[in-house]
Amino acid sequence: MAEHRSMQRAALLDAARSLLSEGGTEALTFPALAERTGLARSSVYEYFRSRAAVVEELCAVDFPVWAAEVEAAMAAAEGPEGKVEAYVRQQLALVGDRRHRAVVAISASELDAGARDRIRAAHGGLVVMIAEALGALGHAEPRLAAMLLQGVVDAAVRRIELGVAEDPAAIADAAVGMALRGVRG
Questions:
Q1: How big is the chain by its Cα radius of gyration, in Å?
Q2: For a tag on the chain, would you pick the N or C end, based on fewer CB atoms within 10 A?
Q3: Average pLDDT rounded to a whole number, residues 139-162
Q4: With 90 as the cut, is the pLDDT of residue 31 above it?
């Protein structure tokens, strides 16, 4: 019985990833989850109490995997500037990934304060990773520089997600250029 529930929960999370990827948070509804998984709508409520709970669980499951990919890209890079470039490029490369859509789909109005705090703390791990590289570049306030650098990444993510103007590779190149010029001071 526990294995069956685990498989159903995994199927619901996978369906949620697909829905978020295809249509954003508006597409993530319990009727849509039920239809994708073949469950009755009432059964979906046995696994999740709300849409926010689905998003929170997706983040709890997917964010560590996503962060590990960023960390691995940084570890493979040479020198602090290479780590900064890897940090930016890997996050932007993950924009189209279904797991990333769940992380981006978080809306402050949908999650309670505790959930937002847990997700913010997980995201803070990315800032810690890059702050070390920024410290190696001689920044007096590497954490502040890391937060600002993440702002550049977040803006590039939003631009890529618009998908209307520039090529994602051009956006990534521009973000890397801004980041490297900024971290060199």
A1: 18
A2: N
A3: 89
A4: yes
